[in-house]
Write a structure and sequence with these properties.
The complex is a heterodimer of chains A (183) and B (160).
Chain A: H1 4-22, H2 26-46, H3 50-74, H4 89-106, H5 117-123, H6 125-139, H7 144-152, H8 154-180
Helix pairs in contact in A: 1-2, 2-3, 6-7, 7-8
Chain B: H1 13-36, H2 44-62, H3 64-70, H4 73-96, H5 105-111, H6 115-144, H7 156-159
Classes of the chains: A mainly alpha (183), B mainly alpha (160).
């Protein structure tokens, strides 16, 4: 059921994630983080989520890495000689607790397609089934994801698009001040 | 702007050749996702991001200042603002003629325009340009800060 490729990918993603946290050199951490994003993108493709995989590959591995590299190029780069970063103990405790909570919920997920009371509340067949059955007739597009995003939940998408635009413009204005009118 | 005295740009034959070969394909792929998102995986967000990333790639290989000269900030911001306006127009037209906001089926019922085109308009003219514009705009501005700020003096009247 779980293939060798998937296990290899899992090991790769976990290793790069840990390396991102533990590497002392910021430049190295950024590069390893890009590798992590690429691994996650392939992982999403394995989990049959091509839309998310494309976004992760373009934004996570590509654009974000480039923006962080450019930011690094602007800062003073100094290496104190140590290769590994000593983990921050309070931070480690908080993240460990969060990890325990998240992993505890994984076991509680109902099986996909199960018909128990909790499972039905989880995957909400009334809404899901409505989209699956009517998306093509009502909207005429064959990608149900597009039908939901642009059609049934167009208002949400409008809000999201406006948020992306507003946040982007706000950052452009703030950065413009910093860059062009002195620090 | 393109004075190479203190610029961080280093010409590299390997990167330039690679980008010259890869960018037509990635641009085509981005456009395909954008225009074909209604019928296959992908869509406007992914397409817009990949088109934006293609421009980043070109800028990385051929110099950020040179790229910025032909793709000015004004165009980039206009692209994203135009996306929001187009999205709003598609939503507001049904409202203006007695339907509800973003009621795509209204186009079909009133004027016989397929519902599909309403969704396509949002994807192609709305979300895609917004994402591409913001990605490129952020990149240009952060890149502008990565070189000594004195050469940025000429750009002050340009934006403020």
């Amino acid at each position: 059921m779980i293939s060798v490729v998937e296990i290899g990918l899992f090991v790769f993603v976990v290793t790069t994630a840990l390396a991102t946290v533990l590497l002392r050199d910021v430049l190295a951490a950024v590069v390893v983080f890009a590798a992590y994003s690429l691994g996650m993108a392939i992982f999403y493709a394995f989990l049959l989520a091509p839309d998310v995989a494309m976004t992760e590959a373009a934004i996570g591995a590509g654009v974000t890495t480039l923006l962080m590299l450019l930011t690094l190029a602007r800062t003073v780069h100094k290496n104190k000689g140590r290769f590994w970063q000593r983990p921050n103990v309070p931070g480690l405790v908080v993240m460990g607790a969060l990890l325990v909570v998240l992993l505890a919920t994984v076991g509680e997920f109902p099986e996909v397609g199960a018909a128990s009371q909790e499972a039905l509340a989880w995957w909400n067949p009334a809404v899901t089934q409505h989209y699956i059955e009517n998306a093509y007739d009502q909207t005429g597009v064959t990608n149900a994801v597009t039908a939901v995003l642009a059609g049934y939940r167009g208002f949400d998408t409008f809000g999201e698009a406006t948020v992306v635009f507003a946040a982007g413009i706000a950052i452009l204005i703030v950065l413009n001040r910093e860059v062009f009118t002195g620090e | 702007m393109s004075s190479a005295d203190q610029s961080a740009y280093v010409e590299s034959a390997v990167i330039m050749t690679t980008v010259r070969i890869v960018s037509p394909f990635s641009l085509t792929y981005g456009l395909f996702l954008l225009f074909h998102g209604a019928d296959s995986p992908g869509g406007s967000f992914q397409g817009g991001a990949i088109i934006g990333a293609t421009i980043l790639m070109i800028a990385f290989a051929f110099g950020i200042d040179a790229t910025r000269d032909w793709l000015q900030n004004r165009i980039v911001v206009a692209l994203s603002a135009g996306g929001v306006v187009m999205f709003a127009i598609v939503g507001l037209v049904p409202l203006a003629f007695g339907g509800s906001f973003l009621e795509h089926s209204f186009f079909h019922d009133e004027w016989g325009i397929k519902t599909k085109w309403g969704l396509e308009a949002i994807e192609v003219a709305g979300v895609g340009p917004i994402v591409a514009g913001i990605v490129v705009g952020l990149f240009f501005l952060i890149a502008a800060g990565s070189k000594p700020t004195d050469s940025g003096a000429g750009a002050v009247d340009d934006d403020d």
